[in-house]
Amino acid sequence: MHKKCNLPSKVCVVCQRPFTWRKKWQQCWDDVKYCSERCRRSKQHILKSSKAD
To answer: Which end of the chain lies in a sparser environment, N or C, as judged by fewer CB atoms within 10 Å?
Structure first.
């Protein structure tokens, strides 16, 4: 068992906030890019706005 302070973390692609490992991501941690469902759903909006620049 890990202590919370020792868990790996990443930065969300959409909101640029750090998030930490969760047990439900145990099998797919390398593929996780978003901190939440809200960020995952809003990825389309972010991608469209970045291409317009």
So the answer is: N
Q: Do residues 34 and 10 touch, judged by C-beta distance below 8 A?
A: no
Token couple for 29: 């941690």
DSSP letter string, 1-53: ---GGGS-EEE-TTT--EEE--GGGTTTGGG---SSHHHHHTHHHHHHHHHH-
Residues of the chain with pLDDT under 50: none
- CB distance 43 to 25 below 8 Å: no
Q: Quick check: pTM over 0.85?
A: no
* CA 30, 24, 6, 36 torsion-angle sign: positive
